[in-house]
Write a structure and sequence with these properties.
Length: about 80
């Protein structure tokens, strides 16, 4: 498992990290304190993934379509 700061992770890295945490917690062989730390990291990774997905969705929604339905151009995304 990576100790890389969550904010610096790509979506794919964060998702892999979250999957690893779920696997470890499901095995049930992690000490209580370690389980709590894993859960906290997992919550941060989940939030990061959701934020990245929401930003990507907004970018996609900002694509304007031409009359025939094909992508025409994009309009600036503002958060």
């Amino acid at each position: 498992m990576s100790d890389k700061p969550v904010a610096e992770m790509s979506f794919e890295e964060a998702l892999r990290g979250l999957e690893e945490i779920v696997i470890r917690l499901e095995r049930g062989d992690v000490a209580l304190e370690d389980s709590i730390a894993l859960y906290e990291r997992g919550a941060a990774l989940k939030k990061h993934c959701e934020e990245r997905l929401n930003a990507a969705q907004m970018r996609v929604e900002a694509i304007r379509l031409a009359e025939d339905g094909s992508p025409k151009d994009t309009e600036p995304f503002s958060a």
